[in-house]
Amino acid sequence: MRLLRKLFNGISLKKKIFVLLVPCMAGMLLIMLLLAGVYSNNMLVEKMIDNSYQNLNVISEKLDLLTQNIESYSVLVLTNKDVQKWLEGQKNANYSVKQDVFAYLLNIIKSNCISNLIIHTYHDTGEAFSVNKFIDPDRKIEDTDFVRQFYGMQESYLWKLNENYYFTSMPLSAGKCVMSYYRKIYNENTVEVVGCVELMVDESVITELYENIRLADTGHYVILDHSGKVVSYKDKGELGKDYSDKEYYNAISQSEGNHKITIGNQEYLVTNKMYKKLGWNIVGIVPVAEVVKDSRRLQLFLLFLGGFFIVLTVFMGSFLAKYVSDPIIRLKKIIIQIGEGRRDIKISQDRSDEIGELFIAFSRMIEKNDDLMKNLLEEQNRKKEYELALIQSQLNPHFLYNTLECICGMASLNKTDDIIFVVKELAFFYRGVLSKGNKVIPVKTELNIIERYFNILKYRYPNKLNYEIDCQKEAENCSILKLCLQPIVENAVLHGLRGKKNDWNIKVQVYIENERVILCVYDSGIGMDSEKIKDVFNQDEWDKEKVNFGIKATDERIKLCYGMDYGIHIESELGKFTKVYFVFPYNTIDHAPECV
User: Fold this and answer.
1) Domain contains 424
2) pLDDT tens-digit series, residues 356-382
3) CATH code of residue 448
4) Is 186 inside a domain boundary?
5) Do you know which SMART domains this protein is assigned to (predicted)?
6) Count of domains forming the chain
7) Which residues span the domain enclosing 80?
8) 3-state secondary structure of 125
9) With 80 as the cut, is the pLDDT of residue 550 above it?
10) Domain contains 368
11) Got the DSSP string for 239-258?
């Protein structure tokens, strides 16, 4: 084992891949072929067994329905008033009564399931009715030994195969008589036996029950009696023959179910079900070769396909081994060269898989090492720029100029109370802006600043601006960057709401979600499309005149302070609304970080 491991560790990566891949793939393909063949055979056989047994159940149910119909017709005969009257006084019965009986019986025999109907008298009077679709001239209906025996039995009804007249040819019939149903007729007043009714069923009626039930292409059904004689079969020449010497008879006579029986040189699937009411055995027989013929075709196809894939695996294994190992060998050489001090090597690759990503990651690592100091200097410069941006936003000359101009207008109109209110709000606003030089303030302080800002805006835009501030109680003492809301609100008014004629609605919400503090500024302004939103975050130059630049500046301030997981994102629908979300970590003012 150690020797094998040593040999394996000593060969190249290309050979390792080839040696492991090709035998494993070939072995798996062969196993899959074998399992697929066995599985498909078993599935087809099980499916045929289920279908066969379901078909036998259908035939059994049809036999139940047939026998129930025959029994129902017998009840109609024995309860008929005319039949009772005729049997009660056979010799004295007038012609009218006989005609009524005959008409009634003739109506019953119109049923396709009844081939012959005979009413036997209890005494040898010579009187009997035979209403039939065919007549057996050799059978004297008034002199039947079995009828006399039946009168002596305790049973009031029974089914009987015509054993003494097995499939006797009926000159006026298309079929052969198979079985009779006998039922005693009792006098409705004295409850004494006055006769019996015999209803005979043709074998063709039995065949019709299953002739349209398909059992594969060459399968067939046969119905045997308790002694193994053929009761019903599509080949009429087999009727009455003894099948007790067949290879499958011992198996089906002992139990019902499915059996695999070899007959001659061919294997058959034999399914049987006992029909206990008549003591019959319903048998379905189909060659196993026919059941699995589709599986054989599938196996041949899979064998051909498997051979093709084994050959393909050899070529693919060789290609894959080379495809994987060559770039790794090349990368190894590059690493050695860089280790020797050659930092000017250009690493090129044209792949986008894991190996390509490995090249890209290695190249980025080299570039990051070279640019580390440069990036640190640039980051310090950016911090200073954003510090300046914060001071400029705190001392926004446009806002102060517009507010003073608003105060002058109110002074000219002698609105002293309004002037006092606006001046106070302006003073409170700048007091909050200065915040003793703090760069991180509580949420409630920031909301107080923005509320002063809203109050001043309402005087600048009378009867237009409506605002709402909603803050979750638990978020009031959380820390956020100072003056993050004012640029966004100003941007919403100047670039979102001023373009609409109807009411201007702004809502500021603050809540805690998933250990984060969320601030949402909603305005009902003109909105932005997706391209406009991308432009907001893609502005590269520091230009105060750019529209919406306050959003980008605030977003980068947040990221510099808290990391790339935090910042601003925008939801907007053109012509309807804009929502600007601020995401801060959940920190109280006592645990606030040191930020720009």
Assistant:
1) no
2) 777 778 777 777 777 775 776 677 667
3) 3.30.565.10
4) yes
5) HAMP
6) 3
7) 55-289
8) coil
9) no
10) yes
11) TT-B-TTSTTHHHHHH--EE
